[in-house]
Amino acid sequence: MKHQQQQQPQPESLYLEVRTDREEPALPLHSSIALFLLSYCQSSPFDVLLLSAQSGQRWPWRGSLPETLAGPAARPAEAPGLVRACRMPAVADADGRCCRAGLAVVLRHVVQRTCDKKAACVGLASLLGFKKTCLKACAEVSKWTRLCELEIPSAVEQHLLDPKDEALQIPPAVLLLEKRLREPVRVHNDDKLRRQKLQQQKGRPAPAAQPSGESCGLELTAAMARLSADESLTVSTRGSSDIRKVKTDELPELEHVFAEGLYFTLTDVVLLPCVHQYLVSVQKHSPDVLSHLPLLLRWYCRVQEVPGVITAAKDCGMSLFSPQAPKPSCTLPGPVEPGEVEKGRVGPNPETFVGGPRPTLTKLKESGIEASFSPHPCPAWNVPWDSLPVAVNPIEGRMSDVRATRKRQQLNNLVAMVTAMARPGQTVVDFCSGGGHVGIVLAHMLPECQVILIENKEESLVRAKERSAKIGLNNISFIQANLDYYTGPFHFGVRAVWG
What is the predicted pLDDT for the residue at 238? Predict the structure, then answer.
């Protein structure tokens, strides 16, 4: 009796862009960053394809890439439809019905899939940071994600176009990163580390004045302990009684070792190719600029001490070096103003937004204004919920009956209008789809239309995929990306704002 071999699932495809610079093919920074991460992971569960309008036979830099990374060249027209509708980089499932686009989303997915494939990859899993939230917030919400994912790569590429332009020698985004590295570090359980640092300071003579940029030993010890998964490298957690009595606000601050604090994360992977190309250019054309970036230089050298980084960079054609900064000839940038960088976000803390229909009506009533409600102008706009499959009902989105009823009422107008106007073969895009409350209903009621759900939050999109699978919908696709990463055509765009 022959045993049927279990078919291995087809790998996902990672699409990277190749641009043409002065009639020569070149990798944009976001493609270089993705290749560097794949090389650092040492094992890629993806088929890597390089998208370019030109042939790949004249790409000499491909010969320096590992065989697992030097993927075949493909023209954009050969990519799946969802990939063509998104900015690069992008990852497509084998069936072509799910796509992830955008640098942060794709890199996080690469780490997660690699960890699923490789056993005991503690070092890789730690790239996602505390509670796996590194670069998870989308760029529209987190200014820190926007700085690392969009602004710094864009600023470096602009600088490389004209490296001798004085206005581009220190881009504001790079200067903001330098200021961020000057901020005190806030990490989980930092009280213990700060008391250990105080213990070290009291247990030895006061050090002589050190050049700007050198870090204390405790932070580096904690960082390397995390990288090696050897907690024995950390200092004893039990301090003397006089140390334990010191108030928290009197403890010494922790200094940055890596971009987000003490630990090497995905943010450092994103920044290294950008900073490397920037420093190479500055060292060549205007080395005096380096004196203004002492902390960035320290970070660049510190990243090279992470096991595997130099090898991964070399495989991707990056020859990391030790930049030599001249003595500063003028005043360095001032310290960051309070609130400019807090909780991983750059910029002033926004005021808490209080709004929505119910708080507004309450304020009107408190001011003596009574709101009057008129009958619905089109009462026939009503979705026949009782005749629809259970999985279409918003209650399948894991919410209370009361909230599900309110969502059905909110869906009535939007769904009824689109179903009345849409024609077979047209495309409907549900922007910020969440768990698919709008898109799933539309896909069920418009079986001859294509419905695309776009959502940045992975958990919500997974829930939407599970719900659509229960119904067996074949006309629905999913994209995990920020809104500005979708560039495809559509006939109807919907966006439900829930009250």
Answer: 54
